[in-house]
Amino acid sequence: MSTLLYRLGKSAFAHPFRFIGAWVILLAVIGGSLALNTPRMSSEFTINDVPAQDVIDQLSADLPEAAGGQGAIVFEAPDDTTFYDDPQAAAALGQAAADVYDNDEVVNPAELAASADPEAAQAQAVEQVAAVQQALAARASGVELEQPLPLVVGEGAQAQPVPGMVVSADGSVAMLQFQFTQQTFDLPQGTIEDVLHAAEQPTEDAGINVLPGGSLQELPEVVGLGEVIGLVVAAVVLILTLGSLVAAGLPLLTAIVGVGTGVGGAYALAHFYQLNSMSLVLGLMLGLAVGIDYALFIVNRQRRLVMRQGLSAHEAAGRAVGTAGSAVFFAGTTVVIALLALLVIGISLLSSMAIIAAATVAISVLVALTLLPALLGLVGERVVSAKARETYSRKVVDGDDHGVARGWAGFVTKNRFVVAIGVVAIAAVAAIPALDMRMGLPSGENYNEGSVQRESYEVTSRAFGEGSNGPLLVVVASADENPVDPAAIGAVTEDISGNDDVASAEVAGMSEDGRTVIMSVVPTSGPTDPETDTLVHELRDASDGYEQDFGVTLGITGQTAMGIDIAEKMADVMPVYLAIVLVLSLIVLTLVFRSLLVPLKATAGFLLSILATLGLTTAVFQWGWVNQIFGLDSTGPVMAMLPILVTGIAYGLAMDYQVFLVSSMRESWVHGHRGRDSVIDGFSHSSRVVVAAAIIMVSVFSGFIFNGDPMIKQIGFALAVAIAIDAFLVRMTLVPALMAMFGDRAWRLPRWLDRLLPDLDVEGEKLLESLGEKPAAKS
């Protein structure tokens, strides 16, 4: 491997325009595809083989027009008026609803009910009009309304209720709830924009404020000010580490190319499939972080070879790609393997996210091994300035080449038992909140103050109660071939309405054969509250009793129920995935380090990192500790997929630092240093670049904490914390302490196992031997 990469690096350096041209052409093709085809983006989360999705699948067969995604639009009345007192505003609402229902992709509940039973539908409409008129008459006489009312437009015999439209008790807010014919992410391009335009146009002249519900809102920006600041910090760290603007610019440039190719390629192909916005952000996060770090490792190695051994830039680039490039290849492979292990879970959403992220990381590795040496070929000897050479020579003469690193390693190894116990204690305390972790999907309440999502959530909660932000779709189905008995429907509706956690329950439609009835059930609590979770399970548990008493079964679906099911599914598969990653860690690290103790220590350290990360994430986002720092003023559940995603990603990135740090200790041991001395010597040669790489990763991930999407916030925070804990607390502190404890025993391996394991030559020792040199200590 190292010899092959050495040749590749020298070839790219000698013929830079061939390699650069190939990447430019690839980017041009991707750019052209994006210009010609509009990608299909979505923030929808669905997972197969969960109860909520099973109900949707059944509805698609029995009542396809009601199996689509839910939508809601909130209307605020002009100041100093209400929809009850302003006939013009009420008429505008009625026209807005009619225009929305005119869209071919929106289900008209009045038509649906009329097709099943016209007489019953007309009778219900008459009853609704009478009830509303009676309530409004009471209001006119001074009686305050306590419950929202359906919107009625027209007068006398022409009066008709507006299907799906309700007005708050004080008349200041109206809400139109409806369903699409398909799930939101399957709708034709532009459908949501057309629906919002249909709602806004009739209400514009009446001064009515229109707020789209959560499923109708635009995706938050992927890259904002926070992400840019993160990149600026990364650039500063690169300049300080490499000591040159030219050298520092190369990792940034290659990372951008890697992201442009990986994420851009996924984006360009998105007109063939639905690309979830979280997949895009995950690929962007990882592509930037690993792209910068991998290039940093190689450029740093080349510069050190030039300064320490006096090699030409050409030869140094070849050797850097052959040695540090081998470690980059292995490190990138571990990240890709950890991500692709998500495919074993069998969840399609996770699989698509994993594939896009893994492909972006793989491309970043390829860019570092091909485009970077080509760019180094253009830079030539300027990669190390005369001033940098002079400064380095002076430090060597003064014995100050690795002073800080040697001092830290000496302190840690001397006090190894106290340090090890202290690190474990800190990680254990940080992990405590994870015992109370509640998983789910964030709602509009968890968006930043002032955002459209937050405003829509708060207006809806104030006017109709928090549960109206996440109504449940309850499907009442006949247990046999006969139509559902109307008496049974009434009894079930009354029973559900009597639940203390239910604000309202009403029939919303029926299939033509009468065997399937859909109901809209509004909880009293919000979409992410534990009480709503309990309600969903109570309704599902009641299905057996309804089947015995009324001959019907209940199925619960909708966005809220889907979020609950996703959280439970993730909790079930998390132990399986964690076991896969830990076993994978032991196998891979045994191959790399040819040791049993080192993989066990590395895996235990990773377990500490991930538990502490989940604990701190729970404390900030669920408990609300210091969350104001990150622009939050509300709490909510931990994103359902975050534990699995962070486990897979953090494992791969943690192994990057493990490889670059511990392999240097092993190399020092191979070359004659023993016990504590090998730990100090190896640490001093590799710690500086590992610290720089970790700071860069933390900076890039931290930039996403200030994104408007609460799910992106959580992922950015968790990954930044995971890298900080693993790099600085575990790899830079716990690992040298444990290595000093075990001494030379850390590198013992049974002879039979030593013969079975292949020699990966991660550090390129065979390459250096083929060049007629003894392997030098890693820099």
What does this structure look like?
- With 779 residues, the protein is α+β, with helices and mostly antiparallel strands.
- Helix content is 63%, strand content 9%.
- It has 26 helices and 14 strands.
- The chain has helices at 2-14, 16-36, 51-62, 87-101, 109-116, 118-140, 191-204, 225-242, 245-268, 277-309, 313-340, 348-379, 386-398, 403-414, 416-431, 452-464, 486-497, 530-541, 543-550, 559-593, 597-622, 642-670, 675-703, 710-742, 751-756, 765-770; strands at residues 40-42, 70-76, 106-107, 149-153, 160-167, 173-180, 209-212, 274-276, 439-440, 472-478, 502-510, 516-523, 552-557, 638-639.
- The strands form four sheets. Strands 2, 3, 4, 5, 6 and 7 form a six-stranded antiparallel sheet that branches. The protein has a four-stranded antiparallel sheet with strand order 11-12-10-13, with helices on both faces. Strands 1-8 form a two-stranded parallel sheet.
- Helix 8 (225-242) packs parallel to helix 10 and helix 21 (597-622) packs antiparallel against helix 22 (642-670).
- It is elongated and about 100 Å long.
